[in-house]
Write a structure and sequence with these properties.
The structure is a single chain. With 181 residues, the protein is α+β, with helices and mostly antiparallel strands. It is 39% helix and 22% strand. The chain has three helices and six strands. The strands form two sheets. Strands 1-4-5-2 form a four-stranded antiparallel sheet, with helices on one face. It has a two-stranded antiparallel sheet with strand order 3-6. The longest helix is centred in the last third of the chain and has 27 residues, at 126-152. It holds the Pfam family DUF922.
């Protein structure tokens, strides 16, 4: 029996990350702190902070001859300290909460991804199906991250920020079954 293993990674803000890059997996019990943001601030940015996060996806397929008979997946939300930064003189707990929500949105899409993967049945097109879901999830994640920043004006709109905080909390609870451990 032959077993093939393929790992695919796509980061929300970056492409081409190395596998030994420092990262932090999303955890319900561990929130971001400013100490987690280790990159130098971007002098050309108007932002006070930047959260680099993304979805890491891997899968294994089990084959018998040429037939795919089973598969397993790993999906995680990661934060990348060496690509995340903040302006020390302008950062505060409110801004940190905004940045945490970016990471929480990434976790939300991890859960949505896991939910869709759970529905798949092993077949000869499973790799293509997983790839299509992966692409669609990352596109939806990017769209939501952009909407979040646009609607909150990067946290300046306090009412919109409160709305998004509540909305993401509720969505995470709906998909609690798929949360990262």
């Amino acid at each position: 029996m032959q077993i093939k293993h393929v790992i695919i990674s796509l980061l929300f803000l970056f492409v081409g990350s190395t596998s030994n890059e420092e990262s932090m997996t999303w955890s319900e019990s561990r929130k971001l702190t400013w100490e987690d943001f280790k990159a130098s601030p971007n002098p050309n940015s108007d932002a006070v902070a930047l959260t680099a996060s993304g979805i890491t996806f891997g899968y294994s397929v089990k084959t018998s001859g040429r037939r795919i008979i089973d598969f397993t997946t790993t999906v995680e939300a990661h934060f990348y300290p060496n690509k995340s930064w903040y302006l020390n003189d302008r950062a505060d707990d409110y801004i940190l909460a905004h940045e945490q929500l970016h990471f929480d949105i990434t976790e939300l899409y991890v859960r949505k991804f896991k939910q869709q993967l759970e529905r798949l049945v092993a077949n000869q097109n499973i790799k293509k199906q997983m790839s299509q879901i992966h692409v669609a999830i990352n596109e939806a994640l990017e769209k939501m991250q952009k909407s979040y920043d646009a609607q909150t004006k990067h946290s300046i709109n306090v009412e919109a920020q409160k709305y998004w905080q509540n909305f993401i909390e509720e969505e995470l609870v709906k998909l609690d079954k798929y949360k990262s451990q």
